[in-house]
User: Fold this.
Amino acid sequence: MEPFFSQTYNRVLASAVLAMAVLALASYAILNLKMADSSYPMPTNISVMGEGEVTAVPNVGQFSFSVIAEGATAPEAQEASGTKINDILAYLKEQGIEEKDIKTRDYNLYPRYRYEERVCAFGTYCPPGEQVADGFDVSQTVEVKVRDTAKAGGLIAGVGEKGATNISGLSFIVDDTSGLKSEAREKAIADAKTKAEKLAADLGVKLVRMTSYYENESYYPEPYYAKAEMAADMGGGFGGAEMPVGESSTKVQVNISYEVR
Assistant:
């Protein structure tokens, strides 16, 4: 009988130990889940994009021109270029353009070559002529900023009469866009807040705090034509046609994320 009771006791004891082990593991798992839930909460976020745009009529015009000169030697070419440039710069200053608004963009001095023709017998192969130096060329490009946009057309015509070539790049800009960017940013943030509040109300949640912010800005001109009287004041530049001054647009986009509950 004793072995039977011993075996039964051992089986009961093993079952009890196993049950206690299972309960212990279950308790440990539940405790870990509770700790994980309290230690690593997973907040819910919503993201919205806001946009703000501000436009302004440009207050500055700018264009560029080039002067090309040549000479038998490098100093001669440079002197010829300097004479033309100085004449044009003097004209610009007479028209009220300040030195800070005149900038040299490119200056190039390079040799010029020609090919001497060879005298060859008729019907025979004639090799290419020999390349020989034939003087020097100087090219200088200058950028001009015109703070009185009404004078832009007349100034372009004037520098052309003074010997400038390759006159190009006429554009109209807002000289300082920092104020426009700030105003556009305020509009974009307000737009994003309005959208976030509307979205939260639709979802039945409340905004808790902002979790991220990203900003993207752009600045570009849009067509805007000057009035006829402005074109008339431009001294007949561009044949008296209306001058497209352009309406500068500063746009800011923001992406804002909010934690919600």
